[in-house]
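Below is one record:
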Amino acid sequence: MKQFTILTAILILSFQSYAQKDWSKVDFSDEYKATYKIGGKTSKALHNNKTFIIGYTIGQATLMKGSQSSSSLQSGSPKTVYSRATIIGINQDDYQQMVDDLYKELMDGLAGAGLTMTDGEDVLATAYAKKQLAKGSSKIYIYNTGDNPTYKGKKSIDRNSIFGYTAGAGAVLTDISYPPRNKNVFLTSKAIYGNFYQYLADKEGYNLLSMNHFISFASFDGGHGYKNVKISTQPVISIKTSIGLMNPKGGAEIYFKKEIWGTGKWAKDIRKIDSGKYEIVADSDAYIAEVKTIISNLQKDIIKNIKASL
């Protein structure tokens, strides 16, 4: 998965309450202890400069893994059991439409909050963007996402999980990333990106916003004693979201201290296909509806607090 991190603003959310909620009535900032730090100069720059969403992606886990180990050291090693789960039944066209809808909601909401939004055509036409594009680097992404923007990812050999997902839900081994269709992006996957973004913000005069939601579909729980160990696999939505905000006057901090989970009510069946391997069959409409409802209301809460800071 293409990765993007702006250290000036990180939002981390994990959805862990298996009871159904009316998400439209949830005050995310209050219930999950949110902090918004948007200084006066940053707020003024948000007013005075155009805002470009440089990257927006919803990542959907497709293969997850959990493990549980015993306390007994037999032959020098504890006993460990593993469980792998895949999710099937999700309609990708409907999922893509959900992403497009949520992106539009975010754009419209930020405009309604008083920000001047741009689709990025002017950004990609700047001398700086053209200079970066001309470098031909495989780690620089300056392009329009087109009609078929999805791409698959898998964990790197040096990681336990794909970067970005809820750690407590289980390791994500493969996923599909969904950017919105036909939108401009300006990103780099370089671990050390230097002034790649700040120069665009400073010299060209833009507010730069990124938002990435990472959706997991299962959790793994178990128990262990001195010799015995077991593990169970449960369907449940969990979401981790990261936000980056940067402009000519600096950046902002947005983060939530408490974790949050969704439900597993969307699961129609859990099938054992082999020892320690399962398929979770999703009701596509129910799964997409729950993900969309949570993210939609989360984004509204973020927009409300950005507006309050202006």
